Amino acid sequence: MDSTLPAVAEELLKEIRKAFQETSHGINTFSFRLKFIFGPSAVPALDLVDRRSVTRVVSPSGRTAFQVLGSSGKLYTCYSSCHFCTCPAFGFTVLQKSECLLCKHILAVYLSQAMGACQELTVSEEQLTSILLAEEEDEG
Predict the structure, then answer these.
(1) Ramachandran bin of 52, using left for φ above 0, alpha for ψ from -120 to 50, beta for the remaining angles
(2) Residue 57: beta bridge partners?
(3) What is the CA radius of gyration of the chain?
(4) Cα–Cα distance between 105 and 84 in angstroms, integer?
(5) Which of 111, 115, 51 is nearest to 78 (CA)?
(6) Is 33 in contact with 8 (CB distance < 8 Å)?
């Protein structure tokens, strides 16, 4: 994970990862801190993780992106390397208004990785390109 998130957020995600690797610790231990740091994104993100809505999409070259099936049924593409999501909430509440650190989708990506709950899908380079270009077409 890159260090563009505040240090306290990075540290909490590291603690969650460590706890789940060592003991399959319950997320309830961290729920208060998650809500404090990530605000209103925390509970919906945990719901997405519980529903196993996060898929890591990997190509043979090693390029990765994440797809998150949102609560509305729409599929969003997230990039953990730059903390970006294609959902409208990310653009509005995170980038424009600076009300949240992350949207629920990108937070679900980080939590699912930390908790070992991320699904994985291997695709060809062409399929990954299509996934990435489909998002650009939706926006334009």
Answers:
(1) left
(2) 65, 121
(3) 15
(4) 9
(5) 111
(6) no
Q: Are 123 and 58 in contact (CB under 8 A)?
A: yes
What is the DSSP-derived secondary structure letter of residue 124? -
Virtual torsion, Cα 64, 66, 54, 105, nearest 10 deg: 150
- pLDDT tens sequence across 19-54: 887 765 566 778 888 999 888 899 999 999 999 999
Q: Judge whether residue 3 has pLDDT over 50.
A: no
Query: What is the strand order of the sheet 119-122 is part of?
Result: 84-85, 75-79, 64-69, 54-58, 119-122
pTM of the model: 0.83
Report which of residues 115 and 5 the model is more confident about.
Answer: 115
**Chain centroid to CA 96: how far?**
19
Beta bridge partners of 76: 68
H/E stretch holding 67 = strand 64-69
